[in-house]
Amino acid sequence: PQLAAPQLATSNPTLTTVALEKPFCIFDTSLSPNKSYSVYLYAMMESAVAASSLVTDHGGKPLNSTFQQTSGGRLGPYKAAVFSVPNCASPPNPADVGDVNKVADVLKQHLFRVGDDGTCLYDPNFLDVCNPPLAPDTTYRFKYILVDNTDGIMKDHTLWSDPIKTRRVKLPMKIDTWPGRRSGGMIVITSILSVFLFLLLSGFLASVFSTV
Prior knowledge:
Layout: E1 18-21, E2 37-45, E3 78-84, H1 103-110, E4 111-114, E5 139-148, E6 153-157, E7 164-165, H2 184-211
Antiparallel strand pairs: 1-4, 2-3, 2-5, 5-6, 5-7
């Protein structure tokens, strides 16, 4: 798994999410005709011990470890997503990102955002795979596996991703408030007020000289 391209996902990673590219054309040689497959995405913290990085049992069946069971990935990988195998024959066109009518579909086809569900942990009726927010300032690794839906076993897999770290929360006292970091609107307002003050002082001085 790789981080999404900057033109598709800005500010990536965020404090609690990581946008990954889906595995286009990765599992093509492992697909058999007339069979149904799914892609599972697993996530774990880099600090988890190497021995706990397995995502299948001894029979090759994918583990159903949840976010809660693995303490958010601290104890090992948890299943963060299940989706269809991306169609290698017709990948999304990145140029369509510039079309407001197509951008949502293109991003959904091309990317998966880990940590994008803020409610599933607290919804007692939620039955799907839970994808809760990630921890800030924490390094994670991710892995895709190809699963045969008929046999329920893993047919192929990627390596674990390179370490990917979420962003750190910035303390309010460390935020730079120098004018160079002000927004454009604040600069415009400050400039207008400065001009008004100059005109007011000029008018006052003109009236004093006129009186004298």
